[in-house]
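ok so dumb question maybe but i'm new to this and my supervisor (M.) told me to 'just get the structure for DUF692 family protein' and walked off. so i did the thing. is this what she meant?? sequence i used:
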Amino acid sequence: MMKLAVNYSKEAHQLVEDAVIEVDMFKCPDFSKELIENAEKTKPCYVHFALNVGDKQMNNVDWDAIETLKQQTQTPLINVHAVAFAKDYPDMDVFTNNSADRNKIIGAAIADLEPVIERFGAENVVMENVVCRGKNENMIKAIIEPEILTEIVKETGCGFLLDTAHAQMTSKCLGFDVKRYLSQFPLDYLKELHITGIQSDEKGRLRDSMPMTEDDWDLAKWVIDGIKAGYWQEPWVAAFEYGGVGPKFEWRSEETVLIRQVPFLRGLL
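this is what came out, is it supposed to look like this??
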């Protein structure tokens, strides 16, 4: 049975400690051992790593530090984000359909996955879908296409991490039907699930880690129902990615949202 996690924040920590909300674990960032140790006084933790595949940065990773964090917490899987940053492909159109371009992107992701898999084993690695916003943005569309993600997963044997907010943002930006788009992902290899709301900022740009809206709940329920019906593999955890720590996230860690939405998500699970 999949566990329920919530992004670690001071607000979430206090609400769990006071038994106002109930979760199985905290999902913690990888940049603060002190934060993790503090969180573990109240609930088990697992770590979400800031690792990308496809941008040729694996030589800069401190693998011993990652292994230590994995062993010291209840983190069963090493997560990576599948990326194809436009800056790394300056001569490539964001919407390229050229087979050579697509093969280059696939090859870069697989090459970056190799050292992760060699160290931890393919069965202990999951690859997450990211956001593509289209022209003049930072991500080449090929890397968010279901057939390419599926090819990488099947070629390497790693698992898949589905982020519903990323799929929803991509779909709204590129004009996809989100359920049709998402259902083509390699969900037979699903091992982890991230759920959170998306909303527009003051400039109309979509962002995630926000409170859930009716559309967000509809998509989350559809995915969870699909998992329960056995259409897709059941992940080990569903993480509610609302709020967090640091300047980027702490302003959107409202107790009232957590009190209302965490129990609702637990009910769906």
